[in-house]
Amino acid sequence: MTDTGIDFEAYRRRIGFDGPAPATLATLARLIELHAAAIPFENIDVLAGRVPRLDGASLQQKLVQSRRGGYCFEQSGLFLACLRQIGFAVQGLEARVRAGVPADVTTARTHMALRVTVDGDDYLADVGFGGLAPMAPLKLHSRGEQDAAGDSYRWVDAAGGRLLQVHTDTGWSDCYSLLASEPQPIDYEMGNWFVATHPKAMLRHNLLVARAVDGGRLTLFNRQLSLRKTAAAKPEERSLGTRGEMADVLADGFGLQIDGAALDAVVAVLERKAAE
Length: 276
Fold this sequence. Notes:
8 helices, 8-stranded antiparallel β-sheet, 5-stranded antiparallel β-sheet, globular, alpha+beta, Arylamine N-acetyltransferase fold
């Protein structure tokens, strides 16, 4: 993963960012907000049997020029490169996903987030955690509740690092355990390969698409489409039945124009799951 091939001016047009971009907390917050609304989380390439490429030119082509989305390694890789271009001090982080995972199960280091230092304070910036990604910077060294666009997050101590939690309609829910180590690009390549190819990797067998929309956060998990006003609110839900419904929601709800072969691959995965 490198910073080469990133055109910040094209990126700012993609997300609708106007005006100057000084390396300030206000700029960081605005970039996260706009990114979450413009570039959806999605794993369609993985379901189509492809391993996403993480070099700067590939990220630029897919997420900016082709107006697609991606998962954490793609989203955070692009965001890191853009932040560095405008003068932010930023470092990649790695984490073990804990959302939906039993407490006694150890997960791999398969999530990428960012540490951004502004005026001597360290902040978490995460544009790649699907429907639970904080839509504002979070102070990394605070243990109190933190608001992020109406959602409440907190850090709690965990073995080997710190655990990020979000307040949902069922109470405090785990997101991921952030590790103290500083990963190298090869670590992200390994994590990316695992997520895209391992037989037991969740994103190899499930469709997950998410973006911020007017009125909340829109998420598609397999055939279940949900809209949450906040993470703590009960979602409005409906199930998608046909290939046409899926195509319409991906296009109209998430701004994704998916080619027929990729859409066929997604539908095949969902049909296999229904038959199991």
